[in-house]
Design a protein that fits this description.
With 107 residues, chain A is mostly beta strands. Chain A is built from no helices and eleven strands. In chain A, the strands form two sheets. In chain A, strands 2, 4, 5, 6, 9, 10 and 11 form a seven-stranded mixed beta sheet that branches. The chains are: A mainly beta (107), B mainly beta (115). The interface between A and B is medium-sized, with 23 and 20 residues.
């Protein structure tokens, strides 16, 4: 099974900061990776698909990059509504696997 | 508008069974693979299972293999997850989602396994 290592597990940042979250796959997954945002008590929401494509309706301050084994999610200028938990998911080979999550908190 | 509505959650004793349903609307279920994902209280997301659009191919997480069965009734636009031999560690909110890459999610249904 493919393991996804996500870092950091938590992050404190301020409004306006640029932040980067990383996911590393234990083997190559091409670009079969998505990023998801989850707020407390809510279902997750997809932000990025195919590693770097922005989901319709998601603000352009979110971006994704990477291919193979290393991937990043970047938020260029944090807004108050971005404080949430973020997950990556590899859907290259079954069983699919999530990263452990990154909780983004207000500094 | 794509909507997914899970139901069937509740309290069950260890060793018991439960069947979850996911009613799809706003799209034709038969043309999409579908997934189940769960989240234990205070924990991260865990991918559970995937079924192909026709239903002839399935895949499971190691933690549920042999105990859970994913299925679908395309005529009813409904996805299912039959859960047997339930364990305390299966306690979670269960979400259904469209496709392997989880483009749309339901709001989830809570399953509690406890004596």
């Amino acid at each position: 099974d493919i393991q996804m290592t996500q870092s950091p597990s938590s992050l404190s940042a301020s409004v306006g900061d640029r932040v980067t979250i990383t996911c590393r796959a234990s083997q190559g997954i091409s670009n079969n990776l998505g990023w998801y945002q989850q707020k407390p008590g809510k279902a997750p929401k997809r932000l990025i698909y195919a590693a770097s494509s922005l989901q319709s309706g998601v603000p352009s301050r979110f971006s994704g990059s990477g291919s193979g084994t290393e991937f990043t999610l970047t938020i260029s200028s944090l807004q108050p509504e971005d404080f949430a938990t973020y997950y990556c998911l590899q859907h290259n080979s079954c069983p699919y696997t999530f990263g452990q999550g990154t909780k983004l908190e207000i500094k | 508008e794509v909507q997914l509505l899970e139901s069937g959650g509740g309290l069950v004793q260890p060793g018991g069974s439960l069947r979850l349903s996911c009613a799809a609307s706003g799209f034709t279920l038969s043309t999409y693979p579908m997934s189940w994902v769960r989240q234990a209280p205070g924990k991260g997301l865990e991918w559970v299972s995937l079924i192909s659009d026709s239903g002839d191919s399935t895949c499971y997480a190691d933690s549920v293999k042999g105990r859970f069965t994913i299925s679908r009734d395309n005529s009813k636009n409904t996805l299912y997850l039959q859960m047997t031999s339930l364990r305390v560690e299966d306690t979670a909110v269960y979400y259904c989602a469209r496709r392997a890459w989880l483009e749309y999610w339901g709001q989830g249904t809570l399953v509690t396994v406890s004596s």
